[in-house]
Amino acid sequence: MRRLGNSVSRLTAASRAIQAANANANFNDDGRLAPLTGFGSNPGELDARLYSATDSPTALVVVLHGCTQTASAYDRGSGWSQLAEQHGFAVLFPQQRRTNNSNLCFNWFRPGDARRGRGEAASISEMVQHVAGRYRLGRTHIFITGLSAGGAMTSVMLACYPELFAGGAVIAGLPFASANTLPEALERMRGQGAPPRREIAARAVAAADHTSHRPTLSVWHGTQDATVDRSNATAIVDQWRDLHGLGTTDGVVEIVDGHRREAWSDPQGRVVIERYDVQGMGHGTPLDTRGSAPCGAAGPHMLEAGICSTRRLAGFWGLVSGAAAQRERSRPADQAEPKRLQPTFAARESGPGGVIEDALRAAGLMR
Q: Is pLDDT of 248 > 90?
């Protein structure tokens, strides 16, 4: 227990260091996002930010930031509000408070915050329903995504409130109900002690009152992620293959912008699950900041990878025009080798990112 307490203390110190560094770099609140208030009950005591360039957005994307991040920081890094401005949809950013979690992580592993009708999950559902009502948007036009702890909370929302979402995306996250305590969460992040596949599938089945609809799912994970083990991506896909009734059916593999994508379709031929393994990338959201259509801004856990997960997800969900053009460089996996990224993506970061990595190594969460 002493080692766990020391680890948490180190992570707290790291989060404070990176918060100060981000503030100095003007990486936090840039005024682009508007506060969302009066959205209903808030048992999880969360904050929220909203972006919409129009009074009649075509869709809503809910975005959950990772640990040590804020809504504005994640928006600036991912480029979600910029894409929303170009294509006419709205973006909702639930935001953690430090009084709930000293590292600004969503509490995805605590049943009191990660079950239907409870805590943070209930607060997020209230936000989603409020904004959807304001813009008269139905479930088929609402999507959710998140990074790391935000990705794990995305798993929670998709399992517990499937009737709210048409689709979701988990980036460097974990499956629903794979942990119920902080020590278990740390083990699962390291890829240890996960419940059997059948058990976590059963937990997801029992999570919601409404089971007639299952959202589509996109899963993204770096092949060199030393913070959240890549086995968690496999566990998420397995959990949702069981929910969609796909069992052990093999997916179709192709190479997209140099990275492996595997996709599973329902009996009608609609892709309901996809998985991206981002070659050579560490822990973070994959971006393409150097391409012909730059996406996002690189920073701590916002990583240049030669592929823009933000734009790809918007295309997968049908939110951007010309989505088919995004696949012009795609080809079957047996016709192309995955692109090799520069080793700096998996190497230790300098500055505030390095502080966090040092703390994670001390906690036993990085090699």
A: no
